[in-house]
């Protein structure tokens, strides 16, 4: 007798995909071309040890550097938590919206993708923050995601950022920039 398989739950498809990719993920990046934007070989040559070392000064320094942001994104992908950074970046982009007509549509898209319960890339925020953001959606403004964005920033800063600094991705990147000097 063959056991009956449970019906397919399409909401869990993303989790199955993530688990299926687990064996392909690694905390090591010997080839940094995969994480660096633009022309990666030239970018890695231009990245100085001093710049990469400064990423350890503060989380905001890391986020403000395009290669630091790329390396941090690659690290978050190994932890399956890149939605936090993607949400934070979407909020930063949202704050630059100047068209009132586009504001509500952009806000709705961000809410549905990251904030709503069962969102495809739901971020980990508390119930009160989620509900405040839901209320803010009734009259979207440039600040409607501020509290949620702040919570996600704080979570990344206190949790993911210290692990990134200890990660093989970061230490290998530092080593590679130092070897170029030798």
TrEMBL record:
GO terms for biological process: negative regulation of signal transduction. Coiled coil: none annotated. GO terms for cellular component: dendrite; nucleus; perikaryon; plasma membrane. CDD domains: RGS_RGS8 (cd08711). Keywords: Cell membrane, Cell projection, Membrane, Nucleus, Signal transduction inhibitor. It is found in: Cell membrane; Cell projection, Dendrite; Nucleus; Perikaryon. Residues 58-174 form the RGS domain. It comes from the Eukaryota. Its main location: membrane. InterPro entries: RGS, RGS_RGS8, RGS_sf, RGS_subdom1/3, RGS_subdomain_2. This is Regulator of G-protein signaling 8.
